[in-house]
Amino acid sequence: MKKIFVIGIGAGNPEYMTVQAINALNEVDVFFVMDKGREKEDLVRLRRQICERYITNTSYRTIEVSDPERDRTTSSYVEGVKAWHDQRAAIYEKLIAEELDDDQCGGFLVWGDPSLYDSTLRIIDQIVARGVVTFEYEVIPGISSIQALAARHRISLNRIGGSVHITTGRQLSAGLPAAMDDVAVLLDGECAFKHVDDDDVDIYWGAYVGSGDEILVSGKLKELRHEIERIRSEARQRHGWIMDTYLLRKAPRGAAGG
């Protein structure tokens, strides 16, 4: 039977690859790579570098296909994303059906970890449910941007007895979640952090974490929010793309500054 590996490749540093991920790479016959256009060609290039560095079986193939554009004009964000996933599912299904023999393995290389704010697993489940093509699949976890961010800032995500809330910039725009003192934020293209008006919140921000282009900033959010927005804008213009994440951390209860 055909098999698919969904492999987490870490947050941008080739050395974030786990032994399990490297072993899976060496089982893959055909890698499927979504090309997101010239602006994000660095992401395709990194995937190639990872394969060249870790794969000893040189008979593998790589197939690059253009990633469909998500319609950002739709009034419903959820419906727009679903329609985009439907397009991706049709492409993935065709690739698996036509490019893999019955005894071969295909591979999708997922930035960070496949289980954390990534659509690949939902799309694979959608293809399985359709039943047009039959295959089994295995998920290989990777080092997420949140893990890498905490490591590079030398902090723990949680505090003693505390919880960590993981959310997106879209959700944060409505305000900090009630009673949540540690909030990790992904996918914040609009810099929602700048609307958090609280003197007692620190920010630990990072972009291109773990790579040679890494940028790290930490300190009081109120003092740094506009500076981070400027740094982020300049970095995006320079590279053509940006992947960043951050942790917002409130001061311990009763420890507010004067």
Structure keywords:
five-stranded mixed β-sheet; alpha/beta; 258 residues; five-stranded parallel β-sheet; 34% helix; Methyltransferase, Cobalt-precorrin-4 Transmethylase, Domain 2; globular; 10 strands; Cobalt-precorrin-4 Transmethylase, domain 1
What does this structure look like?
This protein has 258 residues and is of the alpha/beta class. The protein has 2 domains: 2-140, Tetrapyrrole methylase, N-terminal domain (Cobalt-precorrin-4 Transmethylase, domain 1), CATH 3.40.1010.10; 145-250, 2-Layer Sandwich (Methyltransferase, Cobalt-precorrin-4 Transmethylase, Domain 2), CATH 3.30.950. It contains 7 helices and 10 strands. The strands form 2 sheets. Strands 3-2-4-1-5 form a 5-stranded parallel beta sheet, sandwiched between helices. A 5-stranded mixed beta sheet has the order 6-7-10-8-9, with helices on both faces. Helix 6 links the parallel strand 6 (165-168) and strand 7 (182-186). Helix 3 packs across helix 4 (120-130). The longest helix is centred in the middle third of the chain and has 23 residues, at 77-99. The radius of gyration is 20 Å and the shape is globular. The protein starts with a strand and ends in an 8-residue tail after the last strand. The mean pLDDT is 93.
What is the count of distinct domains? 2
| Overall pLDDT confidence | 93
- SSE succession: EHEHEHEHEHEHEEEHE
Structural class: alpha/beta
Q: Main β-sheet, in a few words? A: 5 strands, parallel
Name of the CATH class of the largest domain = Alpha Beta
User: At the fourth CATH level, what is the homologous superfamily of the largest domain?
Assistant: Tetrapyrrole methylase, N-terminal domain
Number of helices: 7
Instruction: Work out the strand percent.
Output: 15-25%
Helix content: 25-40%
CATH architecture of the largest domain: 3-Layer(aba) Sandwich
